[in-house]
Design brief:
This protein is of the alpha+beta class. It contains twelve helices and ten strands. The strands form three sheets. The protein has a five-stranded antiparallel sheet with strand order 1-2-3-5-4, with helices on both faces. A three-stranded antiparallel sheet has the order 6-8-9. A two-stranded antiparallel ribbon has the order 7-10.
């Protein structure tokens, strides 16, 4: 069910009145789509609550998963945000979790909207203008600080989200990742990635656990909103889980190699070392693991479409528009471990024709 912004606003007005069981009048105004990324529909709006003697306004976000049967993922993100907020980590405050798909056609979350600027826009402008001072003195230090802070939180605030115990094997997390990757690659018959998976399995010893942490899974500047005071808030938590903190770093570094430059990637690592006190061991292994994940999800979306994969309909078009980033990853793969994937290169050629 695809609803217009106007229709969503009218449904929410009735929903809030029933949810709060109130005689107040609820008015939704200025609803606008902020849709971005592959997995969710995002709407910003103002909620006016009008009583006989007062009128209050809240700036809110409706986060709605486009595919059905995603109640578990919605509940997961709500609980993660709630726990992080209570721990003092800068995330938006969540207000409502609604799992009944009859309301809007999908499960959804209502949360606080952080009014301000997308750090990703600042990041992109600084790169475009070659403003190394802004990157080095302002953007990267704040970005890295939020990353380091996340990985220093006691992971046990989300202990109910993992089967891990401190008595587990030091290969618990990497074995889980490799088993999942292998299962998915074989299930969907994306066999061109098997040589890369085999390299990861053969070099598993590089991934002995270094530190357990809360892993965001998609930590990049576009997932940070700067409020009017400049404070950063981290958003987009559906993939959050407990794991080795290098999973997060590997994914972020993979995205930097895909979309930016070696200089920016190296600058990020310098700031990370300065703020955390050390560089992560064997980080290249986790970058290669992330490249494998990225190639899998891109290939899967192109071959099977976004329907049923938990991605928004626009995901395929987004991949086509930024196919260069996959070529960058293939170059990185060749440089790091000498591996080529001709089938993926051919798929990209066909995509760009």
């Amino acid at each position: 069910m695809n609803l217009s912004a106007l229709r969503i606003g009218k449904i929410l007005e009735s929903y809030f009145k029933e949810y709060y069981n109130s005689e107040d009048r609820f008015v939704v105004k200025d609803i606008q789509s902020l849709a971005k990324g592959w997995q969710t529909d995002l709407f910003a709006f103002k909620l006016y609550r009008v009583s006989d003697d007062a009128e209050n306004v809240d700036h809110l976000i409706l986060r709605m998963y486009p595919s059905k049967k995603l109640a578990t993922s919605t509940k997961h993100e709500f609980e993660v945000l709630q726990s992080l907020f209570e721990s003092g980590y800068p995330v938006p405050k969540v207000h409502i979790l609604e799992l009944n798909e009859e309301v809007l056609g999908h499960p959804f979350i209502i949360m606080e909207r952080i009014l301000g600027e997308d750090m990703g826009e600042k990041f992109a402008k600084a790169i475009e203008k070659e403003d190394h001072k802004a990157l080095s003195d302002e953007i990267l230090p704040q970005f890295v600080s939020l990353f380091v802070q996340l990985h220093e939180i006691n992971w046990k605030i989300l202990a109910n989200k993992t089967e891990y115990t401190e008595e587990e094997s030091p290969y618990f997390f990497i074995d889980k990742s490799l088993n999942k990757l292998e299962e998915q690659i074989l299930d969907y018959k994306i066999t061109e990635l098997l040589p890369l998976l085999n390299w990861l399995k053969e070099n598993r010893s590089k991934a002995s656990l270094e530190k357990v942490a809360i892993v965001h899974s998609d930590f990049h500047p576009h997932n940070i909103v700067l409020d009017v005071s400049g404070k950063g808030f981290v958003i987009d938590w559906p993939g959050a889980h407990i794991g080795d903190y290098r999973e997060d770093l590997g994914w972020t570094l993979m995205l930097m190699e895909a979309y930016t430059s070696r200089e920016v990637t190296e600058a990020f690592l310098r700031h990370y070392e300065k703020l955390s006190g050390k560089l992560p061991a064997e980080i290249n292994y986790f970058i290669i693991l992330s490249i494998c994940y990225r190639l899998f999800e891109v290939t899967l979306t192109i071959k099977f479409g976004s329907e049923g994969l938990g991605f928004r309909e626009e995901a395929v078009e987004q991949i086509k528009e930024t196919a260069y980033h996959i070529r960058n990853l293939l170059v990185s793969l060749k440089e790091k471990i000498g591996l080529s994937i001709p089938e993926t290169e051919k798929m990209l050629d066909e995509l760009e024709d």
